[in-house]
Design goal:
By secondary structure, the protein is α/β, with parallel strands linked by helices. Among the domains are: 2-89, Beta Barrel (Elongation Factor Tu (Ef-tu), domain 3); 100-213, Rossmann fold (3-Layer(aba) Sandwich). The protein has helices at 22-27, 68-74, 110-122, 142-146, 166-179, 193-203, 239-242, 253-260, 264-284, 287-290, and strands at 2-11, 14-20, 33-37, 45-53, 58-64, 81-82, 84-89, 100-106, 126-133, 150-155, 162-163, 186-190, 209-213, 229-232, 235-238, 245-247. The strands form 3 sheets. The chain has a 7-stranded antiparallel beta sheet with strand order 6-1-2-5-4-3-7, sandwiched between helices. Strands 11-10-9-8-12-13-16 form a 7-stranded mixed beta sheet, sandwiched between helices. Strands 14-15 form a two-stranded antiparallel sheet. Strand 3 and strand 4 (45-53) form a beta hairpin. The structure holds nicotinamide-adenine-dinucleotide and FE2/S2 (inorganic) cluster.
């Protein structure tokens, strides 16, 4: 069992969980993930390890509540436990050892870029983070990233930082580098698929090597089920064992986007059923009498 030590809210529906996983904390490298199963009957969910504390024996996971299982995970209180945490899984990030790296994080993808930025900074690389969200409330980890280097914040509505998408921030940082006669050596981009594709389309003509972290459907996380297959450079690769990070200029994003949509309707149905079940349970108990709020 993996006991929850802390659960804090980073943004609407986005939580940071610190939990016991001493062996994972000791071995994990940036870019790696764990497969988490809350308990029997719950699905397995791949989650990038955002941080770890080997001395305390804990790892940090950032979870966006989008479906039944992630909603259950973010509802855990300190002292409660997750049954299975398997890992560390996947290949570690290919890190450069000098030069200038930009780390682009879209929404909750910023939590995946954070350990990469941390490792680059520790290696002595200059790090510029470009992070974005639809509005100020959805921008996460800005303070933590500012400790590692420059941070450019972009919001769709202009409520924090500059108005625009992370690609607008990247275009600006690249132009500034050219104006100063310097260059960006590598870009790491993590976020929604359309964002990673847009970053790759922007950096390709600039000749900036670009690494993206893919999040296809994963079932076993060990290369056996084939659920996470993606096409990279015309070849089939399994994100769980060959990735999750790949050369963004080689990824077939259109295929990945279409495969990601496969289970959307089933997930919607499962969420509706879970909400109805919780509402019925609430009704059967005293919430109605005490005036307590039912499930959202
Ligand atoms: P979102 O849709 O709110 O987008 C966040 C930011 O990304 C935007 O504010 C914008 O700056 C940028 N962005 C989005 N679409 C863009 C585009 N077409 N071009 C340029 N920039 C764009 O993101 P969210 O709701 O916080 O993120 C959720 C998504 O991130 C989910 O789809 C989730 O699966 C994905 N995700 C991916 C990983 C991964 O490892 N790749 C990890 C966590 C989450
Ligand atoms: Fe099964 Fe990758 S998750 S092969």
């Amino acid at each position: 069992m993996h006991t929850i030590r802390a659960n804090t809210t980073l943004a609407a529906n986005v939580h940071r969980l610190v939990l016991d996983a001493p062996l994972v904390a000791k071995k994990r490298l940036p870019g790696q993930f764990v497969m988490v199963r809350l308990g029997s009957g719950h699905e397995r969910i791949p989650l990038t390890i955002a941080d770890s504390d080997p001395a305390a024996g804990t790892i940090t996971l950032v979870i966006q509540a989008v479906g039944v299982s992630t909603r259950a995970l973010v509802a855990l209180k300190p002292g409660e436990a997750i049954r299975d945490v398997a890992g560390p899984l996947g290949r570690a990030t290919d890190l450069i050892e000098s030069g200038h790296a930009v780390c682009v994080g879209g929404g909750v993808g910023t939590a995946v870029v954070f350990p990469i930025a941390q490792a680059l900074q520790r290696a002595g690389v200059r790090v510029t983070s470009i992070i974005g969200g639809r509005n100020a409330e959805l921008v996460i980890l800005a303070k933590e990233l500012k400790e590692l280097g420059e941070v450019v914040i972009c919001t769709d509505d202009g409520s924090l930082g500059q108005k625009g998408l992370v690609t607008d921030g990247l275009r600006q940082v690249a132009a500034e580098a050219v104006a100063k006669g310097s260059k960006i050596d590598i870009a790491y981009a993590v976020g929604p698929v359309p964002m990673m594709r847009a970053v790759a389309d922007l950096t390709r003509p600039m000749g900036i090597h670009t690494i993206v972290s893919l999040n296809p459907v994963m079932i076993d996380g060990t290369g056996m089920c084939g659920g996470c297959r993606v096409t990279v450079g015309g070849q089939t690769r399994f994100a769980c064992v060959d990735g999750p990070e790949f050369d963004g200029h080689q990824v077939d994003f259109a295929e990945m986007w279409s495969r990601l949509g496969t289970y959307k309707e089933l997930e919607k149905e499962a969420t509706a059923t879970a909400t109805a079940t919780a509402a019925a349970a609430c009704e059967a108990h005293a919430c109605r009498l005490t005036g307590a709020t039912g499930p959202a």
